[in-house]
Amino acid sequence: MNESAPTGPVRTKRWALRLDLFEEEDVTKVHAVLDTGDNTLESRTEARRNPHDPPVPEIGDEYAAGRALVELGHLLLRSGMADATANDRSGSA
């Protein structure tokens, strides 16, 4: 099996993701920002500790950050679908 070298220039980009976590009593809040250079997406989520569970801040961090990342993923997919639709419409005009 022969693999050919890329025929054009390789495109490289760096995206920046920032997660700010805030803890207030039994609630952990996250503000997540994804900067793609072309677009900025934001998510705000939270996790609340069950009053019957022992306080372990790391668990709240993981739940709240995980929810923020999932929401950013959904926003990113919606943005891609909207861009693809707009690109398809402009290409067929």
From TrEMBL:
What Gene3D superfamilies does this protein map onto? Rv1738
| Name of a matching Pfam family | Rv2632c-like
Q: Which stretches of sequence are listed as region Disordered?
A: 37-57
Biased composition regions of type Basic and acidic residues, renumbered to the chain: 41-52
Entry's InterPro entries? Rv2632c-like, Rv2632c-like_sf
Specify the protein name.
Answer: DsRBD fold-containing protein
* Lineage of the organism: Bacteria, Bacillati, Actinomycetota, Actinomycetes, Kitasatosporales
